[in-house]
Amino acid sequence: MRRQKSFENEMPTCYVVATPIGNLEEMTPRAIEVLRSV
User: Fold this and answer.
1) Distance (Å, rounded) from C-alpha 13 to C-alpha 16?
2) Whether pLDDT at 32 is above 80
3) What pTM value is reported for the model?
4) What's the confidence (pLDDT) of residue 16?
């Protein structure tokens, strides 16, 4: 997933990413990519 970072919109953004209970090492690759991109 590629996203262009744009700072034209100054509105706050909240990302909700599901994580497995008890072991964060089992996060999905997509969840990790989303968190790295922000």
Assistant:
1) 10
2) yes
3) 0.47
4) 84
Q: How far apart are CA 20 and CA 28, in angstroms?
A: 9
Instruction: Report the distance separating Cα 33 and Cα 10, nearest Å.
Output: 22
Helix (H), strand (E), coil (C) string for the chain: CCCCCCCCCCCCCCCCCCCCCCCHHHCCHHHHHHHHHC
Whether residue 32 contacts residue 19, with contact meaning beta carbons closer than 8 Å, is answered with no
For 2-24, the pLDDT digits (tens) are 666 665 667 788 888 888 787 77
CB atoms within 10 A of CB 31: 16
